[in-house]
Design a protein that fits this description.
Layout: E1 2-4, E2 7-9, E3 25-26, H1 29-41, H2 50-62, E4 69-71, H3 74-81, H4 85-98, E5 101-105, E6 108-111, H5 112-115, E7 123-124, E8 127-132, H6 134-140, E9 143-145, E10 152-154, H7 215-218, H8 238-254, H9 263-269, H10 271-275, H11 280-290, H12 299-326, H13 333-347, H14 353-363, H15 367-399, H16 401-404
Antiparallel strand pairs: 1-2, 3-8, 4-8, 5-8, 6-7, 9-10
Helix pairs in contact: 1-2, 2-4, 8-9, 8-11, 14-15
Length: 409
């Protein structure tokens, strides 16, 4: 047992270090790391120190934002942190004893590649879950629903008028001067309203403390999210919202730059994709191509702006296509003549050798017939019908001065 400002804390031993039996609650990497910093600074473990915090930060950087799970990867951790293998094992054990890590899966020498139908050998990895012990919640004055790994923080809005101003805590919380947080009073024992239970990624805290970074700025980045039924013709049913939240969770796991955004906020801005019938994989493909080589600070705002810009571009493109489709085509005189010649050429019945012999027999004694054909149908057709000799003679005759003056030799 080790003393701290609100009482005594026993180190976690044995089966209590497993996810199935832990008394600590599930957490994401950012809040988990803040709790670890406080637990170490408060001295709740006699041997946890700055090296323990280095190992915790390495684990937190690799944790999944949704599940809080992380693979141990002992050799890689040693290479990244420069801490010896024995020290890494020892300080991870300190985190388990603090109640900050719980085993999800114990590492074994079983070949995981064989189970996946692959060749080669790879041992089964050790997997830890990020958890926050009750000592931290008690010291912070958090109100908790449930017990163990599935517990969560809620905020009772009935106590909001009496709540203290929000305070930023940078070191260990010492409640000795103001007395320990009273979690047994009549007010704190009232059952919290179900409507006050927020999502974990949007948690707020009873007692005036607010550990959510930049909470004031992020709430105003997406205006007009609350709409009445008259303003939103495609209002969601509870089942649709649940399905979209489930798909959004998969999208956030596939697109790393969206993982800092809350599920509900991200699901709201992804509604245009859901309306198009896209699933999580297709939406992830769209988002991956949307943001290459950098990470926006506010993913939801960035996605919303990109969708608005894309919708405007699509509208302009559709309007341009309509204008082009409705525009009347007007041919120039030369184009009209060429088109008439082509139509005349391809609309006639095929010409036979008998047609050519008959035409040449008549034109042999009357070149005016060939001249008229030249003017009406052009050189190529006249040569095909009357032959090169007659067509050439007719062309020279038409160009001669004597023909121009009406004298025919």
């Amino acid at each position: 047992m080790y003393e701290y400002s609100a009482g005594q804390v026993a180190l976690v031993r044995g089966a209590s270090q497993e996810v199935e039996h832990t008394a600590s609650r599930h957490s994401g990497p950012r809040r988990w790391l803040r709790s670890v910093e406080w637990l170490i600074a408060a001295g709740l473990h006699p041997r946890a120190n700055a090296t323990t915090l280095v190992i915790a930060r390495d684990l937190g950087a690799r944790m999944d934002y949704s599940t809080g799970h992380v693979r141990y990867c002992l050799d890689e951790t040693v290479a990244r942190t420069g801490v010896s293998k024995a020290s890494v094992k020892r300080h991870v054990a300190y985190l388990r004893e603090l109640g900050s890590l719980a085993w999800v899966q114990h590492g074994t020498k079983a070949n995981v590649r064989r189970a996946l139908g692959l060749g080669g050998y790879a041992a089964t990895a050790t997997v830890y879950a990020a958890v926050i012990p009750a000592a931290y919640d008690h010291a912070m004055g958090h109100r908790i629903i449930g017990t163990g790994y599935g517990a969560r923080i809620v905020m009772d809005y009935r106590q909001m008028p009496d709540a203290r101003p929000a305070t930023t805590v940078t070191g260990p919380v010492d409640n000795a001067s103001s007395g320990p947080v009273d979690n047994s009073s009549e007010r704190s024992c009232e059952p919290p309203s179900l409507t006050s239970a927020n999502e974990k990624s949007q948690v707020q805290m009873v007692g005036g403390f607010n550990y959510t970074p930049h909470a004031g700025r992020r709430t105003a980045s997406l205006p007009n999210q609350t709409r009445s039924s008259n303003e939103d013709p495609a209002r969601r049913t509870p089942l649709q919202v649940a399905r979209e939240i489930r798909e959004t969770r998969r999208v956030r796991a596939l697109v790393n730059w969206t993982q800092k955004e809350s599920l509900r906020r991200l699901a709201y801005v992804l509604r245009p994709y859901f309306d198009r019938g896209l699933d999580s994989t297709q939406i992830a493909d769209e988002l991956t191509g949307m943001c290459l080589g950098w990470r926006p600070k506010q993913p939801a705002t960035y996605i919303r702006t990109a969708l608005i810009r894309q919708a405007a571009q699509n509208t302009e493109l559709a309007a341009a296509e309509n204008r082009l489709a409705n525009q009347t085509w007007r041919a120039t005189p030369q184009e009209a003549a060429d088109l008439a010649s082509l139509e005349a050429l391809f609309s006639r019945t095929p010409r036979t050798d008998d047609d050519r012999r008959t035409a040449r027999a008549h034109a042999k004694y009357d070149l005016q017939i060939v001249i008229d054909h030249l003017e009406d149908h052009g050189d190529d057709d006249a040569i095909d019908l009357y032959g090169t000799a007659l067509a050439s003679r007719a062309a020279r005759l038409a160009a001669s001065a004597s023909f121009q003056s009406g004298v025919v030799a």
